[in-house]
Fold Polycomb group RING finger protein 3.
Amino acid sequence: MLTRKIKLWDINAHITCHLCNGYLIDATTVTECLHTFCRSCLVKYLEENNTCPTCRIVIHQSHPLQYIGHDRTMQDIVYKLVPGLQEAEIRKQREFYHKLGMDVPGDIKGETASSKQFLDSHPNGEIKTDDNFHRGTLEEKQEEGNDYHRSDEQVSICLECNSSKLRGLKRKWIRCSAQATVLHLKKFIAKKLKLSSFNELDILCNEEILGKDHTLKFVVVTRWRFKKAPLLLHYRPKMDLL
């Protein structure tokens, strides 16, 4: 059987963050130009800039953070290509939460046994791939399509209504994947309240309207840092409907 060996450093440029020069962690892509960075690096950069760090294209004049999105596919690729990276990152996160005296989120508690290695990594930086790798990748994609993110980090949320024009949810406490977005929550609420369109809703955290593409993990890290679970979110009709 023919095999092909690829040196890891030959593809480093494609799986590293141009801001920190390290391997991508929580890979996040700019929707305007599709350049990818570590989420923490990109968020910090966009606090004072509104352009892509690589190509300098304007992401958005006033709200660039609303035009970036988690790139799960890229992160999965990085974790598969770099031996031990995922385990090391989980260990760092666990130590971080323990240092702060906070509860460790679900999938950081060591639930990495389900992650599969499809690449035979070698100490000299070479990676061997063959047809078994491609078959394994296909099988994993099929499994991922069936698990509905159950192996993801989980976030506990309390959804409160702060408008007299909408009713409250019968079950306002939910738990879902940290990779779910604000748009997912809008659709969930609209379905439960039988609204004609999820676009009629705003979701807020600390009285700030959240962008539809924000992941819940992003909201927790940037708007709910150091606060205890659950993440408290409010929903209301859009301002132009009030």
